[in-house]
From TrEMBL:
<dbReference type="GO" id="GO:0070652">
    <property type="term" value="C:HAUS complex"/>
</dbReference>
<dbReference type="GO" id="GO:0007098">
    <property type="term" value="P:centrosome cycle"/>
</dbReference>
<dbReference type="InterPro" id="IPR026214">
    <property type="entry name" value="HAUS4_met"/>
</dbReference>
<dbReference type="InterPro" id="IPR029327">
    <property type="entry name" value="HAUS4"/>
</dbReference>
<dbReference type="GO" id="GO:1990498">
    <property type="term" value="C:mitotic spindle microtubule"/>
</dbReference>
<protein>
    <submittedName>
        <fullName>HAUS augmin-like complex subunit 4</fullName>
    </submittedName>
</protein>
<dbReference type="GO" id="GO:0051225">
    <property type="term" value="P:spindle assembly"/>
</dbReference>
<dbReference type="GO" id="GO:0005813">
    <property type="term" value="C:centrosome"/>
</dbReference>
<dbReference type="Pfam" id="PF14735">
    <property type="entry name" value="HAUS4"/>
</dbReference>
<dbReference type="GO" id="GO:0051011">
    <property type="term" value="F:microtubule minus-end binding"/>
</dbReference>
C-alpha cells in the first residue's frame, strides 16, 4: 500500500489481477473503485489469504478434498462390483438366448446352471440376513443354513469359477473393444493385438482428453472474466459518452428551439381540435342517417308503453308489498297455517295422482 491507507494506481491493477481475476467471481470493479475505497481493497487482500481459487476457505477446501477422495474410493469399489455383477447377468442372459436357438453342450449347461444357482443362493442369503442393525423377519421363514444347503457341490463350484474367470475376461475384452471402436472408429478394422494395445493406452488417452477439456474450461472462464471486464469498461465509456452528449445538447441547442416547440404545440392543438370537430360531424351524420322522424316517433311510442308497463308493475309490486306486510303482522301462527295448508295440498295432490293411476289400471 502507498501513503497510509490509500493504494497507488499501479497497486490497484495488481490487486485486480491478483484477487478479482483468480479467487473471486467476475465483478465490475475498476482501479478507480479501489483507489476511492482503500479499506475495501484491504479487505479483498485479507480475504484472499484465507480463500482458495474456488472461493472456499482453506480449511473447508481441505476437508472437501478429503471427502471427495473417500467418495472416489467408495465409488471405484462400487463400480468394480457393479461391473462384475452386470457382466455375470449378461452371461446368463446370453445363455437363455442361446438355449432357445441352438443346442448347448452338457458342459455349457452345467456351467450356466451352476452359476445361476450360486448367484441366486448368494442373493437370497444376503436378503435373509440383511445385517444386525436392521431388524427384519427372515425371508419366507428361511434361515441361512437352509439356503446354504442349496449351494452346488464344491467341485462344480471350483470348476465353474475357473471357467467364469475366462468368460468374464472375454466379455470385458469385448466391451473394451466396443468402447475403443466408439472412441476411435478407425480401430474397428485393426487386429486383436493392436486393439489390445490401444485399449491398454485408452485410459491415458481419456485422462489426457479430460485434462484438455479442463484446460479449455479454464480458458473459457478466463475469457468470461475478460469479457466481464470489457463489458464493465464499455458500459462506463458509454455512460461518459451519454453525459457528454447531454452536456453538448444543453449548451449548443438552437436558440429558436423553444419558439419552434411552441409553434409545433399550437399546430398540434389546432389539428387535434379539427379532428374532434370532424369526428363529431361524422357522428351526427351517422345519427341523422340512422334515425329518421318516423323511427324517432315509433321509439317514443315504444318508450311510453314501456314506461306505462313499468308503472303498472310498480303498482302491483306495491300492492304485493302491502299484502306481505299484513301477513307478517299475523306472526308465527299464520306461518304454521301456511305450512299445514301446503302439506294438506301436497297430500291431496298425491292422493289425486294415486286415484288417477288406479283408474288407469
Amino acid at each position: 500500500m502507498a501513503s497510509g491507507d490509500f493504494c497507488a494506481p499501479g497497486e490497484g491493477v495488481e490487486i485486480l489481477q491478483q484477487v478479482c481475476d483468480k479467487q473471486f467471481p467476475p465483478c465490475a470493479l475498476t482501479e478507480e473503485d479501489l483507489i476511492q475505497n482503500p479499506h475495501f481493497s484491504k479487505l479483498l487482500l485479507s480475504l484472499s489469504q484465507h480463500l482458495d481459487e474456488s472461493g472456499l476457505s482453506l480449511t473447508l477446501a481441505k476437508e472437501q478434498a478429503q471427502a471427495w477422495n473417500e467418495v472416489r474410493l467408495h465409488k471405484t469399489a462400487w463400480l468394480r462390483y457393479e461391473i462384475l455383477q452386470r457382466v455375470i447377468q449378461e452371461l446368463l442372459v446370453d445363455y437363455y438366448v442361446k438355449a432357445q436357438d441352438t443346442n448347448l453342450t452338457s458342459e455349457d449347461k452345467k456351467f450356466h446352471e451352476t452359476l445361476e444357482q450360486r448367484l441366486l443362493v448368494t442373493e437370497l442369503t444376503q436378503l435373509s440376513s440383511p445385517g444386525q442393525e436392521m431388524e427384519m423377519p427372515s425371508l419366507l421363514g428361511l434361515k441361512k443354513a437352509d439356503l446354504l444347503e442349496l449351494m452346488p457341490p464344491s467341485q462344480d463350484f471350483v470348476w465353474m469359477r475357473a471357467r467364469l474367470q475366462l468368460e468374464v475376461e472375454e466379455q470385458l475384452k469385448r466391451k473394451c473393444f466396443t468402447l475403443l471402436c466408439y472412441h476411435d472408429p478407425s480401430s474397428d478394422t485393426d487386429g486383436e493385438t493392436l486393439k489390445a494395445a490401444k485399449v491398454w493406452r485408452l485410459s491415458e488417452v481419456l485422462v489426457r482428453e479430460k485434462q484438455q477439456c479442463l484446460e479449455a474450461k479454464g480458458q473459457h472462464k478466463e475469457q468470461l472474466v475478460l469479457l466481464e471486464k470489457r463489458r464493465a469498461t464499455y458500459f462506463q465509456v458509454l455512460l461518459r459518452c451519454l453525459t457528454l452528449l447531454q452536456r453538448l445538447l444543453q449548451e449548443h441547442r438552437l436558440k429558436t428551439q423553444s419558439e419552434l416547440d411552441r409553434i409545433n404545440a399550437q399546430y398540434l392543438e389546432i389539428k387535434c381540435s379539427a379532428m374532434i370537430l370532424k369526428m363529431r360531424m361524422e357522428e351526427l351524420k351517422i345519427l341523422s342517417d340512422t334515425y329518421s322522424a318516423e323511427k324517432v316517433e315509433v321509439h317514443r311510442l315504444i318508450r311510453d308503453r314501456l314506461e306505462g308497463a313499468i308503472r303498472l308493475q310498480e303498482q302491483d309490486m306495491e300492492k304485493s308489498r302491502l299484502v306481505l306486510k299484513n301477513y307478517e303482522v299475523l306472526g308465527e301462527d299464520f306461518e304454521n297455517l301456511v305450512k299445514e295448508y301446503t302439506q294438506l295440498k301436497l297430500a291431496a295432490e298425491n292422493k289425486r295422482w294415486a286415484l288417477q293411476e288406479f283408474s288407469k289400471a
